[in-house]
Here is the input.
Amino acid sequence: MNMQKKQIKTIFFGNNHLVLDHLIKIADVVSIFCRPQDTDDDNIFKIKELAKEHSISAYQPNKKDLYNYVSYIENLDVDLIVVCGYKYIIPEEIFEIPKYKAINIHPSYLPAYRGQHVINWAIINGEKETGVTIHYIDKDIDTGNVIVQKKVPILFDDTSLTLSDNIYSEACKLLQSVIDRIVSGETLQAKKQNNAESTYFKPRTPEDSRIDWNIDGVEIYNLIRALVKPWPGAYSYIKDKKIIIRDAKYENILLNCEHGKIINICDSTLIISVKGGQLVVNDYTIIDENDNMVHLSIEIGNELE
Here is the structure.
């Protein structure tokens, strides 16, 4: 392990602390770049803690200021840049610097699901399978030649959180194999992506999280499990107040009632009728127009819209 650290010097760009923690164990990480902390992001906090623990320089430039670090990175004389979940497109002036260039860890089986928030989108779209890919970085988004990739199943009870854990656990194993191959002196073979098979997904917007009670119940369930904490949750409205649903289970039960209606309440659990069955809502928050939590008296027969 220590021999590998001496042989390959890396820079990390990204916001995934699990991948960074693994990279520190298998390579000599000499600098870290993560996004500016404009929100209360636990990932960024953990990355900065790792940097402090291992005495690694950490920087949080905005997109424009990235260009100011070209000389700094050149002077570090690194072998490889590893990217995972970085907010900005890394300019060519930077990703061409290292001896072995720059590689990106993308949470899908490319060329499918290029873009952002693809773990969420895969669950929302009801996919049964996704993957993780390590590819070279080029000028475009998620289009570089593929070094290694692996498929990851999506189970019916997976959430974005459990799926993310599974994907990045596999990512760490793949990263280990790539680093080992570089250290051994092997020339990495990479294959071009088939652009004809590519799909691209845009960043989510708040409106994407709103529940449409007219669609199939499984689709609503997929939306909810795709947006569990730390994501913002799927939402609807009840009695003119916003209700954010953070956890629910889908049950395939034949019902003869309006979709989006509360048909039972068990303690704090809401049972809501949906097309094809019912949702058992275990975790929800009700907020007012100022995003303050409020108490609302909910009764059987209330409708969500």
Observations:
- The chain has a mean pLDDT of 93.
- The chain has two domains: 2-201, 206-287.
- The helical segments are 2-7, 17-26, 42-53, 70-76, 92-95, 118-124, 160-183, 217-226.
